[in-house]
Each structure stands twice: as structure tokens, then as C-alpha cells.
From TrEMBL:
Record keywords: FAD, Flavoprotein, Oxidoreductase, Tricarboxylic acid cycle
Pathway(s) per entry: Carbohydrate metabolism; tricarboxylic acid cycle; oxaloacetate from (S)-malate (quinone route): step 1/1
Pfam family, one: Mqo
Gene Ontology molecular function terms on file: (S)-2-hydroxyglutarate dehydrogenase activity; L-malate dehydrogenase (quinone) activity
Record's protein name: Probable malate:quinone oxidoreductase
Species the sequence originates in: Cryobacterium frigoriphilum
């Protein structure tokens, strides 16, 4: 048993732990940091490139960030907020490339236009109005709209080839989008941390967390190779274990986790590496979600670049599994139920009947039904060109709500202990794309005594820290151009509007 406390323990070998560890090492290089990952490799759950869409969520194409109000009005506030967050991530990655902490950027990020594609008169009208609202937003400068099939076909031929003549369709396109391989990015960040003395412990599962009288946390560990059990004491613990985070936070006993539950959603994608198809589609194209579908199940046809190879990914086809992780057990959901969260969980079930109906339908969807969904995007699609792959598990947050008893939150939630010595992340989308702003916010919450002294260094890494880029057209254009140059992104960045 190691009784000498380490400064920081990071639980989970994904993008969140990699980002927090990177920030802390930049800010406090003398701190001792240890990382524990239960699997034999890093970035194998939510950060794995085939377990997520790698969209680089910036609200450029995702319609769920701009829903219509009851009166039909649209506001850009949520979309702008998500984009602001993604710019923070881009700035951090650009900084790490500039100082040599990350390798050639094309190994993890590549220029890929972001598009939205809709069918039907009502949806075309909605997309036109959405474009009008976003057109004057500096972070969305250069977004194009078209309801002309020939124009859309020039943008990406697969969407219009052999589509029924006269069909009501529309699309938006913005060239400054990206495709991100978060698995590669995570591994590169951890490689850099190892050179700075950070310990990475694979095949090591955290089995318990207990607060000690000296205010440290005793972290119980089980090494799956040899079954050795050890402990380590830590002054600060971050639970970045994806779907496994809820169980660990519950084990910690902090009252702040009371009332929280997890709703797991599984998924599948269709993937093709057929060079003839890949050559006809260079974009990430998002559609509109089906009634009752969670935001992470919005259909999209994506260009992916993983390990240098280009492919197309379509989906996701959502489903239900009680697992909280792709590699965990079927008992995750029932074992997460407590007296304090059963009420909110039942309330969520009661108020989300459409979601339950949708997921059940997806579970039993035939191969023919999956092909039909793909053909709404690619009319010429043939199943023999595509393979079905299993995506990662996503665990949406369920929590107490004064009005409804419980709500299903489509986003991320950071939970911290009252003294800031323990923090954990729950939830999913936009997740990895906003890892940097989430972790920067966590620093302020968990290290109030240090944050003022850290701010100059944070601004050196993230120049827009503490400001809003979208409020300053010149600053927005300059930031987009600077990060594009540092990250070797090839798509043009519009000047200030």
C-alpha cells in the first residue's frame, strides 16, 4: 500500500483525462499525476474513433442545437455557445502542436466541410430560417444555403445522384468544419504526458474511493494482470471513466451525486471504404432527428479519416442496452439504482415515452430498414458496399427536477465534491469536442486557490479564455485563421463579417 499521497489521480484513459492531465502539467509541472485505465489500451471506449462520429461538434451542422420554439422562432444562442466551446478545444490543440507536444496535426484532425441536409417543405423552410439566423454570426461566417439539387450535388454528389426529380430538399454547407480522430488525439496527449513523468497504468481498475481524515482520497486498485490489489492516496481525483463514472461517484459517497442516474443508449453505424463511394462524398452531413430520437441519434453521413484511411460512416442506429460501457456487464443499469435516484429515473421513463418507443423500434429494425434510412441520404446505396459496426455506449444523465420529478439531460454534467477534491463527468454529446472548456471550467471549480495564478498561463494556451469570440467579428476571424494555420487545416476561413 502506497501511503504517500500523489497530487492527482485521473480515472479513465480517454480524452477527458488526457485533456485535464495536459492542462495540469502545463500549469503545475511539479505535481505528480497518475492515470488508471481498466482496459489494456488507452482510448478504447467513448474516445475510440469508431465509437464516436468524430464530428468536431461546433453546431455548424447539428440541428438539435437550434430547435424551433413553440411560436416557430429560432435563436442562435445554444449553437453559438457550442461553437465557442469547440474553439477553445481548437486553440488548445493548436498550442500543443506549436510547442511540439502533439505531432503533425493531420494525424488527428482534418478539414471536412460540415453540411445539413433536409427533406420536405417544412424542413426546407426551417433550414432556410436557420441559415438566416446564423449568417450574421461571426463564428458561422461563410455558411451557404441552397435548395437547388444541382448545387447540392456539386457540394457532395452522393446526396443527389438518382434522387427523384422535383424532390423538396435543401442543404447548408460551411467549409471550416473538421473531422477529428479523438482516439489518436488522446493517445498523443498521453504520450506527451509520459515524457513529463505522468504514470499510465493499464489493466488497472479503480474498485473504490474513500475520503480519509487528512482530506485525501484512498483509491482502491485492482490490476487485472495478476489480480494484485493495491491502494494509492490522492489529494485530487478526477473520474473520467465515461459510462463507468456514475458507479465510482456513487461509491465515493459524496452527497452531490444523489439524485443522479444514467440512461444507456447503444448504437450501430454503417461503414464503407469503397473508394468509388468515398471519392464522391467529402463532408459531414447531418439530417433531422426522428420524433423521440435522442440528439446523439441524429442521422448523419460522415467522411472519416482514421489511421490515414478515409471512409464513410452512416448512422447511428440507436438501441438500448443496460450496459454503461461497451466492455462492461449487463448489470450496470440495475446496479446503479439507489433510493435517492429511483424517483427521478421513474419520472424520466414516464415523461419520455416517445424515446422509449423510438429505441425499441431501432432495436428491432431490420437490415432492410437500415438500408432505407441510408438511402434517404444516398439514393444509390447498396447494402453490399457497407458493413455494420457497433458504436460506443452513451449514458445520458437523469437527474432531479422540481417540476417533473426527473429529467433526461442531453449533455454533460460535471459533479464536484463540496471541497473540490473530487470531480467526475457524466453524460455524452457534445463530449469529446468540448473537452477543453469542460476541463478549464473544472479547474476553476476544484482549484479556487490556484486559478487566479494560473490564468496568465491558461490565456497563453487558450487566447480567447474569459472572452466571447462571437461578440468580436475580428477576433473570431483571427482565431479561426490562427488555429487553422497551426493545425494545417486546408479549407478556407472567411474573413470577419
Amino acid at each position: 500500500m502506497n501511503t504517500q499521497p500523489v497530487d492527482v489521480v485521473l480515472i479513465g484513459g480517454g480524452i477527458m483525462s488526457a485533456t485535464l492531465g495536459t492542462l495540469l502539467k502545463e500549469l503545475q509541472p511539479d505535481w505528480r499525476i497518475e492515470v488508471y485505465e481498466r482496459l489494456g489500451e488507452l482510448a478504447q471506449e467513448s474516445s475510440n474513433p469508431w465509437n464516436n462520429a468524430g464530428t468536431g461538434h461546433a453546431a455548424l451542422c447539428e440541428l438539435n442545437y437550434m430547435p424551433e420554439a413553440a411560436d416557430g422562432s429560432l435563436t442562435a444562442d445554444k449553437a453559438v455557445s457550442i461553437n465557442e466551446q469547440f474553439q477553445i478545444s481548437r486553440q488548445l490543440w493548436a498550442h500543443l502542436v506549436t510547442i511540439g507536444a502533439l505531432p503533425e496535426p493531420t494525424n488527428f484532425i482534418n478539414s471536412t466541410p460540415h453540411m445539413t441536409f433536409v427533406h420536405g417543405k417544412a424542413n426546407v423552410d426551417y433550414l432556410r430560417r436557420r441559415h438566416a439566423v446564423l449568417a450574421d454570426q461571426p463564428l458561422f461566417a461563410g455558411m451557404e444555403f441552397s435548395d437547388d439539387a444541382e448545387t447540392i450535388g456539386r457540394w457532395t454528389p452522393l446526396l443527389t445522384k438518382k434522387r427523384k426529380a422535383g424532390a423538396k430538399i435543401a442543404a447548408t454547407r460551411i467549409e471550416s468544419g473538421t473531422d477529428v480522430d479523438f482516439g489518436a488525439l488522446t493517445r498523443y496527449m498521453f504520450d506527451n504526458l509520459v515524457t513529463q513523468g505522468v504514470g499510465i497504468h493499464l489493466n488497472t481498475q479503480v474498485t473504490g474511493l474513500k475520503k480519509q481524515t487528512d482530506a485525501t482520497w484512498r483509491v482502491k486498485l485492482l490490476n487485472h494482470v495478476g489480480q494484485a490489489r493495491t491502494t494509492v492516496n490522492a489529494r485530487f481525483v478526477f473520474v473520467g471513466a465515461g459510462g463507468g463514472g456514475l458507479a465510482l461517484l456513487q461509491q465515493s459517497g459524496i452527497p452531490e451525486v444523489e439524485g443522479f442516474g444514467g440512461f444507456p443508449i447503444s448504437g450501430q453505424f454503417l461503414r464503407t471504404t469503397n473508394p468509388k463511394l468515398v471519392a464522391q462524398h467529402q463532408a459531414k452531413v447531418y439530417g433531422k432527428a426522428a420524433v423521440g430520437a435522442p440528439p446523439m441519434s441524429v442521422p448523419h453521413l460522415d467522411t472519416r479519416v482514421v489511421d490515414g484511411e478515409m471512409s464513410l460512416l452512416f448512422g447511428p442506429y440507436a438501441g438500448f442496452s443496460p450496459k454503461f460501457l461497451k466492455t462492461s456487464t449487463w448489470f450496470d443499469l440495475p446496479f446503479s439504482i439507489r433510493l435517492h435516484n429511483i424517483g427521478p429515473m421513474l419520472a424520466v421513463a414516464r415523461h419520455n415515452f416517445d424515446l422509449m418507443k423510438y429505441l425499441i423500434g431501432e432495436v428491432f429494425a431490420s437490415r432492410t430498414a437500415k438500408l432505407k434510412a441510408l438511402q434517404e441520404f444516398v439514393p444509390t446505396a447498396k447494402m453490399e458496399d457497407w458493413e455494420l459496426i457497433t458504436a460506443g455506449q452513451r449514458v445520458q444523465v437523469m437527474k432531479k427536477d422540481a417540476a417533473k420529478g426527473g429529467v433526461l439531460q442531453m449533455g454533460t454534467e460535471v459533479i464536484t465534491s463540496s471541497d473540490g477534491s473530487l470531480a467526475g463527468l457524466l453524460g455524452a454529446s457534445p463530449g469529446a469536442s468540448t473537452a477543453a472548456p469542460i476541463m478549464v471550467d473544472l479547474l476553476a471549480r476544484c482549484f479556487p486557490e490556484q486559478i487566479e495564478g494560473w490564468k496568465p498561463r491558461i490565456r497563453a494556451m487558450i487566447p480567447s479564455y474569459g472572452t466571447k469570440l462571437n461578440a468580436d467579428p475580428a477576433a473570431a476571424a483571427a482565431s479561426l485563421a490562427a488555429t487553422a494555420a497551426a493545425l494545417n487545416l486546408t479549407n478556407p476561413v472567411p474573413a470577419a463579417v
